[in-house]
Predict the structure.
Amino acid sequence: LSLRDEIHEQPEVAGGFLDRARPAVEAIAAATADRPIDVVVIAARGTSDHAAVYAQYLFGALHRLPVALATPSLVSLFGIEPRLDRALVIGISQSGRSPDVVSVIASARRQGAPTIAITNAPDSPLATAAESSIDLLAGPERATAATKTYTAQLLAIATLVAAMPDRDASTGFAGSREERRSALDAIPAALIAALTAEGDAARLAAERRDLDRCVVLGRSFDYATAREWALKLKELAQVHADPYSAADFQHGPLALVEPGYPVLAVAPSGRAGADIATLLERLRAEHDVDALVISDDAAIRAVGRGSLALPAGLPEWLMPVVSIVPGQLFALHLTAAKGLDPEQPRWITKVTETR
Amino acid sequence: LSLRDEIHEQPEVAGGFLDRARPAVEAIAAATADRPIDVVVIAARGTSDHAAVYAQYLFGALHRLPVALATPSLVSLFGIEPRLDRALVIGISQSGRSPDVVSVIASARRQGAPTIAITNAPDSPLATAAESSIDLLAGPERATAATKTYTAQLLAIATLVAAMPDRDASTGFAGSREERRSALDAIPAALIAALTAEGDAARLAAERRDLDRCVVLGRSFDYATAREWALKLKELAQVHADPYSAADFQHGPLALVEPGYPVLAVAPSGRAGADIATLLERLRAEHDVDALVISDDAAIRAVGRGSLALPAGLPEWLMPVVSIVPGQLFALHLTAAKGLDPEQPRWITKVTETR
């Protein structure tokens, strides 16, 4: 079963990335110091787009850089290239082959902007188009649903952003560059610990084998996790899973909830998790929802009717590399509990080339 | 019935905006020429966030400016202010009262960036916080679900972006500034024409009164329309409506479709609409989906099992101001067909103040 194997390979992939890719990523980060950067532009699709959402919060939190998610259709359909001469431009794609993502990077490079590809395929068109390329070294991913390449993308982004030299605008939010570097070293062990949630994930999934719709809440750094968890539930278990930030959810979609309505949430300890926990308490008290919570904090987990534990000790800005793991396991076991095939979701292919 | 009245007021609101607000918007646009702008940052929530998505494509298509959608939680939860000294910063909010949106504008103004509020409440905290403010002049909106303030927000954005002086980087995509200005004049009549879809919308809604889940497809300029249509279906008719760009849909969520699965699409004539039409043809041929299409092009409408007509003649970049109208009407009549109250969706309030 390659999907389950690939989920369980994640600690090894992360350890391998830190051992073998970190020096190259640090060199790429150091080189950005010589370039004028007012904004970061990221092109990505699907799961990789959720890695881009994580990057959006990380560049903002550590370096106060605004991040624009690219609108590839302006390039690919209309031939309009965004002005990117003071931008750092990043393309993220497991296969490195989606033409719309490649077109944004090629345009940026022609304009002289620093360009970075993050891909699991170092000879791909995306890697070739970019000035610098980060190889995820995750090994072949055979299951259609991306798992180990997603956490490897997040780790690559965290390594890159943490290694970027502090500028006047940098915040110290995650400590000094040395402190950020050593925080990364805790990731492989945290991934091993997160995988021990599998028994609980299987049990909670079996109890919810009829799950066909839900919302998935996250906020700030872990908004990306909510998006990615929802996508796994859609593509693997055919659940209409709708991801929201806790704030956007209250601007309309709240009208969907009723007693027993399933609300999944990623709420690690920290300010964003506390915000989600407050919302969940209200949803349980006022609407008696079926809350299922992923958290490292036992008090937040207690807000859920069911919960999945995360290891303690990771800072909020690194938690998304690990917090998706119980979500992946829940989606895998829900797929099995529904009698569906986790290896090959219907209709879709591993490499999707959109324009 | 204020919701239906407000939907039908949209031509009058648009005409009033062009008559009375355009000179002020053009002055705001002219003033941006003196400021260094490498990026546009927009803060918004809910329906207003869909106006921001429209702005993202419009700034890119006309002026090649990358647009970052703000991450308000970094300011409101973590106290981290993004560096915005070469950004044009826009806050969009019907009520002008969401503290997280106000906090982004206040931070940008402290940093000396040009700031613009777009709101229906000229004395609101948002309007006061910004250097310039655009009043939508839409009159009080009483229904909880936003309709006339949404199209007024789009029209305000279109007026602003079209009136911005061309820079070296500008594309000529939508013609000269004079041509862009006169294109806007066609909007009120186009809104009147779009409202004639009400009979078809009521009939199609009655046929689909059991609709409880669907995807809503749009691309490029009309990706915003897909997002907004899905939100109306959620908050009014309690439908799990999931919006996608045609590209992102093929990266995973395609696994949800099966024979008879409802696929709603906004596909006006033009390159993005042609792209959606191609996808819809494939979804009908391979998966026998129940496609419902909004388009001004009879050949594209024929791809749907059902369709709603848009008036012909609007350029692709202005179509979103009008293309949501048949979607609003469909959501209204579906709500009525389900026996739900369109005036007051359950649980939510007109003004949502999130941090």
Summary: The first strand of chain A starts at residue 39 and ends at 43. DSSP finds 16 helices and ten strands in chain A.
